[in-house]
Write a structure and sequence with these properties.
This protein is an alpha/beta fold and 260 residues long. It has eight helices and seven strands. It has a seven-stranded parallel β-sheet with strand order 3-2-1-4-5-6-7, sandwiched between helices. The longest helix is centred in the middle third of the chain and has 29 residues. It starts with 8 loop residues before the first strand and ends in a 9-residue tail after the last strand.
């Protein structure tokens, strides 16, 4: 049976590693044509070659393109969306994973430059992506966007005031956008991962001496897998979630449900 996502045109930001990379692979397996966007040119090109070889070897009906993209730069974001439309004829979906990881710096020690860079990627970047993606989707009269936030939006993480603030902003942005475009055929949802074993998470944990203690607050007592988080995002993107918009889906091992 043909996957209902087959033939869809999708962009994935932060697509060269972690949750984004897992999502790209799931979408390719489902028969989507994907633009994998990432700020890292070297890693992106390496993963592009690996996945392209898989497409060719398995005879998949998918297509894949890679574009180096800094989501805080509007020209990069526009080029990403334009590439999807010019290559695949339209834009059906987007999973926006690109993020600036927590700095693990107390608020009073944060520099203006650190604060601004965090918001430039996480908040401004999400805004720019959604704006250009929605413009493309309005031409189709349909589309689905999944913004990747974090449980830090609703459960404070030590020494991460910048990260918690901009992730909370993403949740609010999603709800407002969902309201604005619900009658225009465009769904906008948020996938809110907890601690997921990704390169970004490992980098953050290495500079946070309390990280192991935080894991004990998770009912499942382990980190999530990138594939587990990506599955939540792909579900929200798909027609299986056709009556879901403005939602914030935790994929967090029960962390936000736990009373502690």
């Amino acid at each position: 049976m043909k996957n209902p996502l087959a033939g869809r045109s999708v962009v994935v930001t932060g697509g060269a590693s972690g949750i984004g990379l897992a999502a790209v692979e799931m979408l390719i397996d489902a028969g989507c044509s994907v633009v994998m966007a990432d700020i890292s040119k070297d890693i992106g090109e390496r993963e592009f070659v690996r996945i392209k070889q898989k497409i060719d070897a398995e005879g998949l009906e998918s297509q894949l393109k890679f574009l180096q993209t800094d989501v805080s730069e509007e020209n990069d974001v526009k080029a990403m969306v334009d590439l999807a439309v010019s290559s695949y004829g339209k834009l059906d979906g987007a999973i926006n994973c690109a993020a600036f990881t927590p700095l693990n710096v107390l608020l009073h020690e944060l520099s203006n430059e650190q604060w601004d860079r965090s918001f430039a990627v996480n908040m401004r970047g999400m805004f720019l992506c959604m704006r250009h993606q929605i413009r493309a989707m309005l031409k189709n009269g349909t589309g689905s966007i999944v913004a990747v936030s974090s449980t830090a939006a609703v459960r404070a993480v030590p020494s991460s005031s910048d990260y918690s603030a901009n992730k909370a902003g993403i949740n609010g942005l999603v709800r407002a956008a969902a309201l604005d475009y619900a009658d225009k055929g465009i769904r906008v949802n948020c996938m809110m991962p907890g601690a997921i074993a990704t390169p970004g998470q490992q980098k953050s944990a290495a500079s946070n001496p309390d990280f192991d203690k935080l894991i004990e607050l998770f009912p499942v007592k382990r980190l999530g897998k990138a594939e587990e988080a990506a599955a939540g995002a792909v579900f929200l993107l798909s027609d299986a979630a056709s009556y879901i918009t403005g939602a914030v889906l935790p994929v967090d091992g029960g962390h936000t449900a736990f009373y502690r």
